[in-house]
Automatic annotation (TrEMBL):
InterPro entries, alphabetized: NadR/Ttd14_AAA_dom (IPR038727), P-loop_NTPase (IPR027417)
Domain NadR/Ttd14 AAA: residue ranges: 5-166
Organism whose genome encodes this protein: Rhizobium viscosum (Arthrobacter viscosus)
Protein name as catalogued: ATPase
Length: 177
């Protein structure tokens, strides 16, 4: 069984907070590639930023997500990902028109159920690493709600509840290892 679980969805929907809670409970977690790339690019005056060169940013995110997925295979127990390869490939496809998603259909699979955070304006925060607005975040969410099922994943929308209850909800939908 694949033990790599993707938590995706709307930017600013509480994914990182949920990952922190899962980590606090002893689960392995992987930070979102996009945030790591933005920090690296800003520190080094790079141009692979989503607001400068979205295609270069998405290509870096694809490479990072592949490496993250590969490293997670050696872990025991569940590993939870803040976004994954499908997110990055979907962004590249939306930016360039390249048919990236279909090339991934049977490669680098994650657990069959993907958990999506819906748009949640009350928790959305604009910061130095997230420079797009809420409307762009909702458009991204809409794109992902289509992309994951097209790639053969079951999508479960996470409820807008306190983080502990959200973690309980997610964990209750996974089989015991």
């Amino acid at each position: 069984m694949i033990k790599c679980v993707v938590i995706s969805g709307c930017s600013g929907g509480g994914k990182s907070t949920l990952l922190e809670e899962l980590s606090r409970r002893g689960h392995a977690t992987v930070e979102e590639p996009g945030r790591r790339i933005v920090r690296e690019e800003l520190a080094g005056q790079g141009a692979a930023l989503p607001w400068v060169d979205p295609a270069a940013f998405a290509r870096r995110a694809i490479a990072m997500a592949c490496e993250d997925r590969k490293l997670a295979e050696i872990r025991s127990g569940w590993t939870f990902f803040d976004r994954g390869l499908i997110d990055a490939a979907s962004a590249l496809q939306a930016t360039t028109g390249e048919a990236m998603l279909e090339t991934l259909r049977d490669r680098h699979r994650y657990y069959q159920t993907v958990f999506l955070t819906p748009p949640w304006p009350e928790v959305y925060v604009h910061d130095s690493e997230r420079q797009h607005g809420f409307e762009e975040a909702v458009a991204e969410y809409d794109r992902l709600t289509k992309a994951y099922p097209e790639m053969g994943y079951e999508v479960v929308i996470l409820p807008r509840v306190a983080v502990a209850a959200r973690a309980d909800f997610l964990l209750s939908r996974l089989p015991d290892l």
